[in-house]
């Protein structure tokens, strides 16, 4: 598996989702990833930190210049807790938990890399469905972290490496029923 190709795929996916979701500075982007699935293996069976590193680099390469906040989901063994910067924890009034993600035990490769690479990384139990959009690489189930209503996004491709790619964004809830008129820019 070519790591440069994986990084370019991630950059393109994050870029397309940011554009399709009309994300702007200060919004929150969530990512879940199975490095095993990227390599064509069953989730949780072939954790690979090198793959996770290029995925993380691809994500931040797109989000940092846009000043979009990042939350990285850990694996199910940490109950899908998330790695965020301390500033994000404070901004969203999140509760820090005591866990250090590990690639082969609990946390997964991408959670571990994010914890090591983020400026002031902390682990939070939950982001209370406050993400505005995200990508799920390898069916890790990120929908619980996105504001209701979650809307699937189709981008120009549907895999990263061998992993299925699912993208999503939020939209405001419709209220008012048949008589209501909706802002097309929010749909």
From TrEMBL:
It comes from the Bacteria. InterPro entries: Antibiotic_NAT-like, DUF436. SUPFAM superfamilies: TTHA0583/YokD-like. HAMAP family: UPF0340. Belongs to the UPF0340 family. This is UPF0340 protein EDX97_04435. It comes from Absicoccus porci.
């Amino acid at each position: 598996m070519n790591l440069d190709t994986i990084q370019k795929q991630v950059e393109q996916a994050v870029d397309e989702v940011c554009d399709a979701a009309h994300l702007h500075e200060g919004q929150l982007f969530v990512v879940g990833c199975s490095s095993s699935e990227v390599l064509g293996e069953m989730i949780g069976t072939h954790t690979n930190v090198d793959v996770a590193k290029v995925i993380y680099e691809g994500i931040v390469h797109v989000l940092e210049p846009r000043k979009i906040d990042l939350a990285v989901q850990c694996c199910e063994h940490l109950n899908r807790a998330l790695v965020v910067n301390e500033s994000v924890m404070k901004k969203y009034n999140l509760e820090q938990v005591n866990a250090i993600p590990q690639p082969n035990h609990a946390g997964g490769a991408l959670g571990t890399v994010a914890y090591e690479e983020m400026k002031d990384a902390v682990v939070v139990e939950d982001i209370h469905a406050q993400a505005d959009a995200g990508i799920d690489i390898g069916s890790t189930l990120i929908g619980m972290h996105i504001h209701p209503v979650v809307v699937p996004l189709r981008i120009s491709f549907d895999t990263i490496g061998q992993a299925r790619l699912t993208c999503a964004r939020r939209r405001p809830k419709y209220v008012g029923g048949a008589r209501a008129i909706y802002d097309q820019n929010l749909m």
